Amino acid sequence: MTTVPATSRRQGRGGRERILAAAAQLFAAQGINATGMEQVAERAPVSKRTLYVHFRTKNDLVMAYLQDLTSAGHTLESVLTREDVPPRERIMGLFLQPAPEANPVRGCPFIDAAAEFPDPHSDVHSYAREQKLLMVRLVTVLVTELGCREPAALAEQLVTLADGAASRAMVLGDADYGRHARAAAEVLLETALPRTR
């Protein structure tokens, strides 16, 4: 690993963006709680003073990381809002595989964050829960648009499949694990779609 001289660490703009990028890499590779603020500063690279100017606490950094994932469209949920894609394809997009070079295979960042911050009243856990509830609302809209029977229940089943597949892909280190959930989702949709005469 190349060491960046201390003088060059303080030069240039974009410190906040570099910090978030470094945090995203480290959180994905080793988990949130296992990642120290000094590691993030070194990876960015920024001084610890600059890091704490942008993020007073690690909790602030974690929240900014999750919000940045959402706003940048780096989550499975982002496929659900693409108006240039038909509703059924958007739903099936939940089961797309990560890039083949993704190593290690990671699960849903919101589930990961909620697991590392188990207190349901914490900011991080609450934000993760909001994103999971948003996901089911978006799928409910899409299956309703398709004319599926019992859209709320179907949406819960589909997002449960997507979250379960992401978790198992991470645990098993199998980037292609979503194929199983995709096949099950196809059956659920076919069963729920209105029959044509």
Q: Brief overview, please?
A:
The protein has 197 residues and is an all-alpha fold. 62% of the residues lie in helices and 0% in strands.
**Secondary-structure-derived class:** mainly alpha
Proportion in β-strands: under 5%
- How many strands? 0
Write down the secondary-structure element order: HHHHHHHHHH
Mean pLDDT: 89
* Cα shape: elongated
Biggest pleated sheet: none
Evaluate the radius of gyration. 19 Å
Q: What share of the residues lie within helices?
A: 55-70%
Distance between the termini: 65 Å
Number of helices: 10
Q: Can you describe this structure?
A:
This protein is an all-alpha fold and 197 residues long. The protein is 62% helix and 0% strand. The chain is built from ten helices and no strands. Helix 8 (123-145) crosses helix 9 (151-172). The longest helix has 23 residues, at 123-145. The model is unreliable at 1-12 (pLDDT under 50).
What layout of secondary structure does this protein have?
Layout: H1 6-9, H2 15-30, H3 37-43, H4 48-54, H5 58-71, H6 87-92, H7 109-116, H8 123-145, H9 151-172, H10 178-192
Helix pairs in contact: 2-3, 2-5, 5-8, 7-8, 8-9, 9-10
Brief descriptors of the model:
single chain, 197 residues, mainly alpha, 10 helices, 62% helix, disordered N terminus
